[in-house]
Give the backbone structure.
Amino acid sequence: MKDLITVIAKALVDHPDEVRVSVTEKDDKFEYRLSVHPDDVGKVIGKQGRIAKSLRTVITSAAVKETKRVTVEIVS
């Protein structure tokens, strides 16, 4: 899952070498924190959050096999 987020994010940004994904496992969910260069935050979020919503939809769909919930948070 972490690799999938990384590949998608690197395709969207101007500074792909600064894309970082960290994983935190809490009680019943995995929380992925996507960190990008401050100039690229808008590109990952998109107009009215459309790209971020699409990214979250893809990750949630890919995580159906897991028994835990998955969330994606975008930070600069």
Summary: The helical segments are 2-12, 41-45, 50-62. Strands lie at 20-26, 29-35, 69-75.
